[in-house]
Amino acid sequence: MEAMKPKSGIGVLGSQPQSGVRKPRIIVCVTGGRLLFSGVEVARGLVSLGCDVQIVLTMEAAESVTPSAAEAFTNQKPVVDPLCGAGFNEVKINTGEWDVIVVVPATAYYIGRTAEGDEGNMVGELVSGADIPVLFVPDSEHGMSVEDFRKNLKKLKERGYHVMTGLEIQEVINRVMYLAGLSAGRKACGDMTQVQGEHGRKLRFP
Fold it and tell me: Is pTM beyond 0.90 here?
């Protein structure tokens, strides 16, 4: 598959943060799949709304989206799966400094592993300890039986993650901005009621 190259222009609803207002800070984790370029489109749309965006590429995504292309969209070097080898940005992310993590598109492989609580992969390591909203947007081609797919999505929700089916770029952007507003607002107010999830993840949102 040809590596993705930057292109200009995207129609995005919403408005940019006012001067002096803290920018929403979003981590966009792209895992691969047939619709992997939609993840970069989401990142580009969030940047156009004035967000600070950090792209994270799994090994599968990095085969098609070059780090230089990802950087061109966000003005930040992407964090790339260490399995890709030397020469990539493998800096650990402090999720507490961000407002939302969105995994888009989320492939069946990473959905399944995260649903089982497996932290031995890039996505699991990123989201498992996060105490900010995490949104999974599944790839429409999930590559498993409908029953298994639904079971895994249910497990994600039980673990405190948000799930959004239907990969419409603008709708994903709107949901991320909504979650970012909740996250930033509650941090500013200091009203972050923590509920300990069944599997140990701190849930701060209904």
Answer: no
As beta bridge partners, residue 138 has 106
Q: Say which amino acid occupies 24.
A: P
Q: How far apart are CA 86 and CA 143, in angstroms?
A: 31
Helix (H, G, I), strand (E, B) or coil at 117: coil
For 10-66, write each residue's pLDDT tens digit. 223 334 444 556 789 999 999 988 888 899 999 999 999 999 999 999 988 988 888
Provide the H-helix boundaries in the chain.
Answer: 36-48, 59-62, 67-74, 108-115, 122-128, 146-158, 169-189
DSSP-derived pairing of the beta strands 100-106 and 134-138: parallel
Are 170 and 12 a contacting pair, CB within 8 Å?
A: yes
Residue 91 above 70 pLDDT? no
